Amino acid sequence: MEGSYKKNLLQTFITDSNEALDLKLVREPFDVENDETTFKPEMSHQIFGENESIFGYQNLKISLYYTAGKLNTYLGITYKAEVDPKQFDGAIADDVMGAISAKLPPGYMTNLDDFVATLNKEQTFKPFGELLSTYSINKGSATERHFQLYSCTIEEIGFRSYHERLQTFLLWYVDAASFIDVDDDRWRFYLIFEKYPCDGGHRYAICGYATVYLYFAYPNKTRPRISQFLVLPPFQRLGLGAELLNVIYRSFLKDSNILDITVEDPSEEFTRLRDFVDSQNCKKLPSFSKEKLHQGFNAEMVDEAQRDLKINKKQARRVYEILRFQATNLADFEEYRAYRLDVKRRLNIPYQKEASDYKKLQKALNPEELRSTLSTSTKEQRIENLDKQYQMLENEYRNRRTSLSVMESDKGLALWLEMFHRFGTALLRGVPTTKGKIIEVVKRFAYVKETSYGVTFDVVAEPDPEHLAYTGTHLHHHTDMNYREKSPGMQLLHCLKSTDIKGDGSDPGGLSFLVDGFRAANWLKENEPAAFHILSATPVRFQISVNGMKFSQTWPIICTDNEGKVTEIHYNNRTMGPLQAPTHLITPFYHSYHLLTEKIRTESMQFAFHLAPGDLLAFNNRRVLHGRTSFDDTRVSRHLEGCYVDIDETMAIYDFLRNKV
């Protein structure tokens, strides 16, 4: 018993390092205590190991603060208790300060008062280098903001030490990050600053930066390569990433010595951004017109993209495929087929080379030597692999078609919200699979509604679950939180992980499904009017106990307005209580409920699909019923992050954008 107690107690000294670390860009003393100025790291394994955990502290909080302009740095930690080596067989706490300080340049502070005192010097800070561009958002409104983009070299006075502080952000946001050798004079630096009003004047806050290395390209050209690219979390989703990339492009366009611009080991997020920017720019070129896209990829596209935009041939081909996919009418069989064949011809090139190499070896080797030297795939295997490659690529291009347009443009957001308004559901693909990204998406159009489950909630199988959703059990069609005074109008689920561990080809389960409750109710109204009347006139109590708190509310299954139009559906067999009604109404009610349930479970009513990592599903919780098939949680690793939103906020921004766009 004592061993088990000690083991459980030790668990309380293990902290998630991502949750423990608070980052801030401090503009004024008030920001130090203001939780709204805090932002979290996306990763911490480069400091605290692959498990991203810290041992030895209870209620650990790490504070890593920077002044917004000069980047003067403060590092501090607080905790409730530290593990006692005498009590736990010599176990000692991790050296948190040592792990982080080893990556910080000299001069960081550990006294918070000293750090706050340096804010007085922020008024003298001016950005380094040459001003290349200005960028504004929300022009003409009370929330108007202004940004400036600069370029400089390491020779700029004071920039070397500034860059040493700036690059420490890479550790928390760029995987496999490494600090560059700034003594090489072929490095170029691009910086974004916000110019904000303060005390009757203006100050500057760093927003992000990029580094570019000027490689030699034979025989006498230069090929810039983008190495590091970071927009800090408080400034993401403002269009700054696209603006920074365009500024880098424009800085090289007029230089005839530049061959083209490449990227070093781009992340998924940067690849999405690059595809978006390059696609927008190539759209303006004559060779990428809609008519020419349907004629196929050609040398004119390569030449024009390289000459006018410094885009290399490989990226030009990718942009062509993205733009042609956007220009293809997927409902037109022949047009869609022509697109698929065009892409598959490119994907088939390695197999053609394989076949050519095989023929050459056939002439030089006997059959036994040939078998031991080269393994070739059959025609059926090649076709299967081609189909898989193509489908993955098309899914990627579909993502480009939606996620960036929603996050970077009002028009894209308006179209996505229109889909939600019309059909009660909308899917966003290609959302980075980082916990908390769902909040960034919501902030584009509303605020997250905090509930008894928290600001967000995690749907993941647990060994000792308190809720059926946290198992692999089949979840029947339902709407959420009918037991509240007003159930949330919009629900979002972001798939962070969905992995079939065994991967043996059989169906792993966990299929999500949606049903339009309005459609089912209207079918009932037309075909079983008596049942419709009973379900729309009979109040039903929904109730639940959450964390010791009891919630209870009464609704009809089908809610209608004064004209009989269906406005809401409240349906959940797990939280619906026994009917409280006169005896003669019991049988008619449950007969009507059975009719609706049968219709809802009809296959033709259901939209079923597997949520893939990066998918973010939004649906009207008062209209669309959702559920999932069962899955073996020892075989399938599945993690969804969810949240709720008040639907009137969503509809208000939709109406505003519809009129604006």
Structure, briefly:
37% of the residues lie in helices and 25% in strands.
CATH homologous superfamily of the domain at 2-123, by name?
Histone acetyl transferase 1 (HAT1), N-terminal domain
Oligomerization status of the protein chains: single chain
Helix content bin: 25-40%
Under the CATH scheme, which class of the domain at 2-123?
Answer: Alpha Beta
What kind of sheet is the major sheet? 6 strands, mixed
Query: For the largest beta sheet, what order do the strands appear in spatially?
Result: 9-10-11-12-13-14
Q: Any idea of the CATH topology of the domain at 2-123?
A: Histone Acetyltransferase, domain 1
Measured distance between first and last alpha carbons = 67 Å
SS strand fraction: 25-35%
Explain how this protein is built.
- The chain starts with a helix and ends with a helix.
- The protein is built from 23 helices and 28 strands.
- Among the domains are: 122 residues, Alpha-Beta Complex (Histone Acetyltransferase, domain 1); 64 residues, no CATH class.
- It is an alpha+beta fold.
